[in-house]
Amino acid sequence: MDPLKPFDSNMQLLSKVLDLRAQKAQVISSNIANAETPGYSAQRFNFEEDLAMALRGGGVKLTTSHSAHIPLGPSNFHSVTGKIVTIEDKTGIGDKNSVSVNQEMTDLSENELLYETAAQLLKKKITQLNMVLTGQ
Fold first, then answer.
1. pLDDT tier at 76 (50, 70, 90 boundaries)?
2. What's the whole-model pTM score?
3. Number of neighbours of residue 73 by Cβ within 10 angstroms
């Protein structure tokens, strides 16, 4: 273990997942807050596919020979930042608000459950690290 990096890659991954889940919760909360705002377009914060691709080692790898070359996808999970996608209104109700409160509540529940799971796993890793350090 590198003494300058006391946390292993699993702990760093769990920390990254917690950060991304927190950002997703903010986007969902914003959608719920604007459920009655005419003209508001719902937004989705997507990072799961990029994270999965980064963990698999990426899809097609391109060789970059210049610093201005844009990589095809994230090279590792540290570089996953997520994307916000705007959902256009397709209901035809007339207020041009694309928020479905039922969908947002489902997304919020799922995100909270996955956040809590990652937090519990990280807590378990920290507890194990503490046991090793204290000799218990």
1. confident
2. 0.81
3. 16
